[in-house]
């Protein structure tokens, strides 16, 4: 077997990606064990920032049967009551019954200070770590996000809503969604498959005790899926899976361990764009894993909103202790209306890319992070999600 080189001296041309395909993204509810951990870690960060805007936080959480462990490195003048914070958050999520309960789970606090070796580089404005960060935007939704991940988040949000409002009283806090979209000529055409995994009580099991009743299955489809998916995307061939194993009675940390940072594709673009490698939750904004990823999304969204491209991926990279990024790259998959080299120049001109500049531009030293820890960090319209604004679009369009 030889190397796959062209004998003509010309590099082989890669074929264009098939424009007709299926694409799948998933989401999880706030009661999913990994998301419980993300929310605890970000709630700790918020509590520190309420009292000390310069606090340094790298908080990790682990949950399992009957136990929550909160660890990491925190340097702050603030006092955080970990036990009160964790129990209050678990109550808010809905872990109030037997099994894993806010009232009787064990809580272990294993937090220490940040390494002084890291601090000496961050104190002078350098990045808190090395790494690469990705931002993405496209024209598939009003939020300039990929359609599959947005619909997956709509499903899990709705699953939590019908539980908390008592519309479906038999639901538990844990749950997942997965949604497959059929693309034609590179554009979303229809929803191919909808998957909902919903924790529930034994009240909706059939006589066998091994699966939920058909009536409950249909009720979940009608109350969770259909209200949040555009009917024009559904047809007679759309497949619905509800708890395909049969039942989902035991859920949450009672059935599965959870850890901070294990749902990074749920947090970002559902697999439609690369992920830089670092998780977000529990990290203060001096950690470029988080803040530079937010800036990269801000840049990409403004480039698309300005009409300079239909799809935009922004790559940033940093070295620990160094303020300026070591690289800035813009990729638009051939949809750009000005050369990508020019786009890179515009980005460096109009966006602050040092850690301090990012923090100031996006106002990140505020207790805004628990809200990010479930249902995605991007594509949100809440006021605190400053990286979702398109306030630089007009300036970019004019300068381009």
Characterize the structure shown:
By secondary structure, the chain is α+β, with helices and mostly antiparallel strands. The model is unreliable at 1-16 (pLDDT under 50). It has helices spanning 33-51, 82-93, 116-122, 147-164, 214-225, 264-267, 288-305, 340-350, 355-362, 393-399, and strands at residues 21-28, 56-64, 67-75, 106-112, 131-138, 171-184, 187-200, 239-242, 258-259, 311-318, 327-331. It has 10 helices and 11 strands.
Topology, element by element:
Elements (H helix, E strand, L loop, with lengths): L20 E8 L4 H19 L4 E9 L2 E9 L6 H12 L12 E7 L3 H7 L8 E8 L8 H18 L6 E14 L2 E14 L13 H12 L13 E4 L15 E2 L4 H4 L20 H18 L5 E8 L8 E5 L8 H11 L4 H8 L30 H7 L1
Parallel strand pairs: 3-4, 7-8
Antiparallel strand pairs: 1-6, 2-3, 2-9, 5-10, 6-7, 10-11
Helix pairs in contact: 1-2, 7-9, 7-10
What can be said about this structure in brief?
With 400 residues, the chain is of the alpha+beta class. Helix content is 29%, strand content 22%.
Helix content: 25-40%
Content of β-strand: 15-25%
Q: Would you report the number of β strands? A: 11
- Count every helix, treating DSSP H or I runs of 4 or more residues as helices: 10
Distance between the termini: 49 Å
Structural class: alpha+beta
Overall mean pLDDT: 92
| CA-atom Rg in angstroms | 23 Å
**Quaternary:** single chain
List the strand order in the largest sheet: 1-6-7-8
Main sheet record: 4 strands, mixed
What overall geometry do the principal axes of the alpha carbons give?
flat
Low-confidence stretches: 1-16
Secondary-structure element order, as H and E? EHEEHEHEHEEHEEHHEEHHH
